[in-house]
Structure formats: structure tokens, C-alpha cells
Amino acid sequence: MRELENIIERRVAINTGQSIELAHLPEKLREASIQMFRKKEGRIPSLEAQEKAYIRWVLNEAGGNQTVASQILGINRVSLWRKLKSYGIDDGTVLDAPP
């Protein structure tokens, strides 16, 4: 977030036009994607359900590679293995996206 603030502040300081366009932003920022979790029809999932869905989504993004998924999650591989076991995700295959 701080990096985004700095980028915008710099663009405002050097911008000569009335607005900041997408083309004015660094390529890394233009190509960024945002993933959001939303509740379904008034049902608020538990923290455990959210964590399970998030782990499944990260595993999907990592192509089922548990080492890469653990790095993305910021946990060690053994911790990920324990979570997968406790949630019944035993093979690390590519799974559905979160709700």
C-alpha cells in the first residue's frame, strides 16, 4: 500500500495534465491483479472455511506445487502439509477457486 501511495504522489508531483492515466503507472502496477473474497448471499464463512478456501486457491495458482504455495502463503512446507491434512486436502492437486 505504501508503494502505491508513493507512486501516486510522484505522479501527481510531475504530472502536467488534469488526470493520471493507466499509462503513467509502472508496468508492474498496470499488470497487477486483485483477488477478493466475497460472502455468498448473506452467509459469512468461518475463518477456518476462509483459510481452507484461500489455501486451495493458492495451491491452484501454484499449479499444485506445495513448495511454491507455502512460499506464497509465507509458511514453511511442513506447516502447509499439516493444514492440508487437517482440511482433508491430501494430494495438493489443482482445486477450485474460493467462494
Describe the protein.
With about 100 residues, the chain is mainly α. It has two domains: about 1-30; about 35-99, Arc Repressor Mutant, subunit A (Orthogonal Bundle). About 50% of the residues lie in helices and about 0% in strands. The protein contains five helices and no strands. It has helices spanning about 1-15, 25-30, 45-60, 65-75, 75-85. The relative contact order is 0.12. Residues about 95-99 have low confidence and may be disordered.
Rg for CA atoms? 19 Å
Biggest beta sheet summary: none
Q: What fraction, in percent, of the residue positions are helical?
A: 40-55%
Tally of helical segments: 5
What is the CATH architecture descriptor of the largest domain?
Orthogonal Bundle
Could you give the topology of this structure?
Layout: H1 2-14, H2 27-30, H3 47-61, H4 66-73, H5 77-86
Helix pairs in contact: 3-4, 4-5
Task: Give keywords.
mainly alpha; disordered C terminus; 2 domains; 99 residues; Arc Repressor Mutant, subunit A; elongated; 5 helices
Question: TL;DR?
Answer:
Helices cover 51% and strands 0% of the residues. The chain is mainly alpha-helical. Helix 3 (47-61) crosses helix 4 (66-73).
